[in-house]
Amino acid sequence: TQAVNAVPKDLRGMLLGNVVLAGGCAALPGFRERLEADLRPLVPSEEALVVSAPEDPATCAWRGGSVVGAGPDFARLAVTREEYKRDRAEIKQRYEEHTAVLRGRM
User: Which of 4, 38, 46, 62 has a C-alpha 20 to 30 A away from that of 78?
Assistant: First the structure.
């Protein structure tokens, strides 16, 4: 819940409604159900909690990253270490623009 509480309040529901398990341990029998049961008491009752596991959780993070990296928005959204050190204000503005786009999709 710390990670969820660290984002703007209007995006929290989107995060809680889209918990995706990744990594080899996510394939363990009952893991998804156990995590959902452990998280439910920490999530406000008015918020939907959806925990899902892809067919192959061991490679899903890599596959997702490859889709983002190959997408048309990657160059605009990517931030190098040098850019971050040089211009944090611009990086913050990029983040705010991106979250505004996400809000429009909700």
Answer: 4
- List of residues 6+ apart from 56 with CB closer than 8 A: 27
DSSP string for 32-96: HHHHHHHHGGGS-TTS---EE--S-TTTHHHHHHHHHHHSTTHHHH---HHHHHH-HHHHHHHHH
The angle at the Cα of 33, spanning 1 to 58, to the nearest 5 degrees, equals 85
> What's 7's DSSP letter?
S
| Residue 51 phi, psi (nearest 5) | -115, 125
This prediction has a pTM of: 0.63
* Other CB atoms within 10 A of residue 53 CB: 19
Those residues with Cβ within 8 angstroms of residue 68's Cβ, 6 or more apart along the chain or in another chain: 74, 77
Q: Give, as one character, the DSSP assignment of residue 21.
A: -
